[in-house]
Amino acid sequence: MKNTYDVVVIGLGIVGAATLWRLAPNCKRVLGIEAAGPTHCYGSSHGESRIFRRAYWEGAKYLPLLNRADELWHEIERLGDRQLLFPTGGVFIGPGSSRVVAGSIETARKGGIEHEVWNASEIRRNLPAYEAPMGCGPFTSPAPMQYLPAKQGWGC
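User: That's the sequence. What structure does it adopt?
Assistant: Structure tokens below.
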């Protein structure tokens, strides 16, 4: 018997699985092929958890894509009747002139993303286990970030 498909997706890691998910409603016959089986530990997105953030230090140009990704993560949660994203907040610490800190602050501001900028004394007050060097700053705490625990039966 000959099987015919509209689309075959080879590799069902995060990109392949997402591609298959979005194609399936629009195609009559789709097939996904994964060499290592479901929820294996050999891909680029295996392990305990992931961080999803929108305050990219790489720039605000990613905001439309990240905002859409956020919508789709919540759609997957609704369809699966299961929470996948857990807001935790996050902290980038470094000199205000660093590309990571300055870029994160700029993206957070442009995107209307909740965040705080801390100086060294505020870091010591908010994170007493961390010893911030005097004279360094500003520091930033872009938030919210999302924690995706893979151990809920979705990963290794």
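The longest strand covers residues 7-10.
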